[in-house]
Design goal:
By secondary structure, the chain is α/β, with parallel strands linked by helices. It contains 10 helices and 7 strands. It has a 7-stranded parallel β-sheet with strand order 3-2-1-4-5-6-7, with helices on both faces. Strand 1, helix 1 and strand 2 form a beta-alpha-beta unit. Helix 1 crosses helix 10, helix 3 packs parallel to helix 4 and helix 4 runs parallel beside helix 7. The longest helix is centred in the middle third of the chain and has 24 residues. The chain starts with 15 loop residues before the first strand and ends in a 23-residue tail after the last strand.
Length: 285
């Protein structure tokens, strides 16, 4: 099903849609959902992959190179956008792809950079969807740790997090980064709302993408999680993209500042021992 955009009426000017991380997986699937809405910018670190998708989609799709850890590239990405409709952010690193600090830089600090850069381009009807993960729900509900996640662009951010857990450990960093995204959309919802815009996070479970398959190969216990989940299977990029299409449509006009789980119920059976003995302090400043 294709959900209507907020400006799809014939004869009216159409707003620009942006997908960051459009080169593959859920980003590419989301881009295909948005392709008929008008101007579509496909951003990815892998420019060749984004260009290939732009050629496939045709129409008003264009490809640009973008690394969310580079503010100059983000400024360039948004510089030509005067009328932002949907911003879909799927770019990220899994816990087998990089060090913990790099994961936090891309998955959390990078998301905050994107949110703040996009805020200068918001209009009534703009929507931002930021992919998180059901893994974010594995983080302990420690007030100090949660508060420490809330200002990713502040000086010494990673050093403050390091008082709570070993930020160089990729699995802990990944889970913390995704819980941080949940919190960022809540904190920014008011500012976006004052401009008539909405912001949400979306948390997939284990999904059949190249990144997901790579994680399964590195962590065989994920197969047991799939089998134990209520749905008993992986999700597909297309299933996630259908939810993104809904969230960026007028049909979702009251959904903002919250996280949407698209995980086949996997959050109900997540293992809870990842952080046992690894939370360093609940009183760190």
């Amino acid at each position: 099903m294709q959900w209507l955009s907020s400006r799809s009426t014939r004869g009216m000017s159409r707003m620009t849609n942006i997908v960051i991380g459009a080169g593959s997986g859920m980003g590419a699937a989301a881009a295909r959902q948005l392709a008929d809405r008008g101007p579509l910018v496909l951003a990815d670190m892998n420019l060749a992959a984004a260009e290939s998708l732009a050629a496939e989609l045709g129409g008003e799709a264009t490809a640009v190179a973008c690394d969310v850890s580079d503010q100059d590239q983000l400024d360039s990405l948004f510089a030509g956008v005067d009328d932002l409709e949907a911003l879909v952010h799927t770019a990220g690193l899994s816990n087998s792809m990089a060090s913990g600090r790099r994961i936090l830089d891309v998955n959390l600090i990078g998301v905050e950079r994107v949110i703040r850069t996009a805020e200068t381009r918001l209009r009534a009807g703009s929507v931002g969807v930021f992919l998180a993960s059901q893994s974010g729900y594995m983080l302990p509900d420690d007030p100090g740790l949660l508060a420490a996640l809330d200002d990713p662009l502040s000086d010494g951010f990673l050093d403050r997090l390091d008082k709570y857990f070993e930020v160089d450990e990729p699995t802990l960093a990944y889970q913390a980064s995704k819980r941080g995204v949940h919190r960022l959309v809540r904190h920014h919802a008011k500012a976006w709302g004052t401009k008539g815009a909405r912001i949400v996070s979306l948390s997939p479970g284990i999904t059949d993408t190249p990144m997901g398959r790579g994680e399964e190969n590195a962590h065989p216990e994920m197969l047991r999680m799939i089998e134990a989940s209520p749905s008993g299977r992986r999700g597909t990029p297309e299933e996630v993209a259908q939810v993104i299409a809904f969230l960026t449509s007028p049909a979702a006009s009251l959904i903002t500042g919250s996280d949407v789980l698209v995980d086949g119920g996997m959050a109900t059976i997540l293992p809870r021992g990842t952080w046992n003995g690894k939370l360093r302090s609940t009183t760190a400043p």
